[in-house]
Amino acid sequence: MLMFVTMATTPDISIFKAWFQAKGWTPFSFQTQTWKAFEEGKHGLLNAPTGSGKTYALWVPILVEVLKLKAEQKRNAYSLKAIWITPLRALSIEIKQAAEQLIQELNLEVSIGIRTGDTPQNERAKQKRNMPDLLVTTPESLQLLLASKNYVKSLQNCQAIVVDEWHELLGTKRGVQMELALSRFKTINPRLRIWGISATIGNLKQARDVLLGVDAVLLKNSVLIKANLKKNIQVKSIIPNTMEKFPWRGHLGLHLLEEVVPIIKASKTTLLFTNTRSQCEIWFQKLLEKYPEFAGELAMHHGSINKETRLWVENAIRNESLKAVVCTSSLDLGVDFAPVETIIQIGGPKGVARFLQRAGRSGHQPGKTSVIYFLPTHAIELVEASALQKAVASKTVEDRLPYLNSFDVLVQYLTTLAVSDGFYPETILPEIQSTFCFQTLTEDQWNWALSFITKGGETLQNYDEYHKVEVEADGLFKVNSRGIAMRHRLQIGTIVSDAVLSVKYISGGFIGSIEEWFISKLKPGDVFTFAGRNLELMRIKQMQVIVKKSKSKTSKVPSWMGGRLTLSSQMSELLREELYNSDAQEKSPELKALDPVFERQNLESIVPKPNQFLIETFKTREGYHHIFYPFEGRFVHEAMGSLLAYRISLLSPISFSLAFNDYGFELLSDQPVDMLSVLDNNLFTANYLLDDLSKSLNATEMARRKFRDIAVIAGLVFTGYPNKLIKNKHLQSSSQLIFDVFKDFDADNPLYQQAFTETFEHSLEQGRLQKALERIAKQDIIWKSCQKPTPFSFPIITDRLREKLSSEKLNDRIQKMIKTLQN
Fold it and tell me: What global pTM score does this model have?
């Protein structure tokens, strides 16, 4: 949507200062610092929390610059002058509205538009003819701009790019995508100013360096501005009246539902954050079942619900017509909800930064207090609650580590440039090497990338479908096939998920989208819960799930791939420190509430101290249980459990089944392990880690699964046309064929090697695993041979039963186990 108004004043920062004054606002120091730095032609990173006025810190100087440019270039009225990048489409409307308020109230002759995946085709065509002055877009839509003909002409007058929520993009392949796009923009217009906006993360300076690249001149002409606003955050834990001595991950915290309702009733608007979409669905259903009076005042918001419903919920929060919203990370970022008074976090958020981000959704204006309640889903999560209290007070948050040498993103980017106007390698190589991600790119790797996009590399050169880019007589690399160009544009992006199907009523009406792997387990007549409704599956037609409403009381709840979060390294450390304080004289209310659990734990075993590492063993009818407690998060525990199982099996032939949670892991076998003999053989050494890990986990199989995403991003497999997407199993089999070809004939292929690097560094967190082993090697290993399960082991052993039993049978079985243990 374009909008024009007449400007009555000379372009100058003073008119914006007067506008602030008329509103009764005084600009914050960080805003005026940013205005000054921008005016001086500097680049920078602004560290400011959501709701602090960060948007105006950059819209104001950008508008000053745009107005000056328009005054100078009357003939070039229709050209893009500034781009604002947002990681979420939902935020684009908010950002546009903030700029529009300035434009309209100051009567400025400036146009603004949005270009995201939701922008209608006719609007895009209009933008192509007449670009707005200001454009709000996403990383993926920015890449599509680079894939359009004559993009240089469209972008040559762009004076500024702002990357909002940069901390969300950093440490992802979308961040790499942004680095590459910015390297091109810097060449198109050397006067371009690059700015990022980031919430607080541990490595802010590095975040700025990744945004701006490794150009020393650029970095010297940059600033890091911190808002330093004193945000008061109140953390309140919801502590059960009676403490279960044998905690388990049951009922998803629903046993505390009665404690939640008074909080909702006492607040203007409450957001209830869950960690998974499944949990979100269950909480929404249970609240309405128990309190039908909430109908019409309670809503749900997660990424799989249709866009119209999500927008309706967001608007209803703003106009105060909703009492509460059960949501996931879909409401984590920047959308500004002034009426929200209270946040309830259901279950451990697994990271300090995520918790602070969610806390900041309430009192979402400068000077307001943020109130967040922590609701544990089982007793031991109260240790997390206690640790978070200290983390909030000390303001310590995690680092976001950037990617290096993401070759799949590189070859996609090169094909994007070839699809538009083509590129000359000698021009593009220095740009790519100026990025943080590819600063060490070698000549051999570069030549491989060029060979890959032109003929599929040495291995795939006999297959015409991989001959995408042609080299013209003057050395220009260009895609001339319309079919190849169209397929590439459809697949631009780095977010690879399972195949998604649309859920529609048989009578018509789109409800949302759901992953293929869940639906493939259902048959016609089965009832499942989705978007807060019980739906009966009628049939699956093409990529559509046809349903009707069901009155059935029982249903299956969808679980989405990648829904389980793991403890961050920072959170793990805080958790251990807090646990070590369990017997302190002065301790938090959360730890005091856990005294019955600690007392019971000490009857059979111990609560470990800072210099101790605890191992417990006991026998049940299921076999011999060996429990280890590193308190490092589920990903590290999965890797460490497999590693130890492999090392133990080298000493004596034995097989294990593995179960794990964020606190520890279990090796279950049909025979006991001679623990003293095993410990004497340096079980926890960090030596030979990579080799042992590869053998213990079947690293090739894990890398093969990881390669599917790499193959999609690199364009080795095509995901399909809209409404005709290729099924996940077919994508997997196609990528596995290519993986095996590389494995047998081209083991040095950078994409093949990348699959292993990502498996070890990202999926298995090899770096964290190494540090954990080094820490354990310095601790005293305390082995306790127990007569029966302990409170610490109980959540781990019951988690394994979850996979075998229905929720009703699981509940009955666990209650019997607790009864036996308490005797």
Answer: 0.84
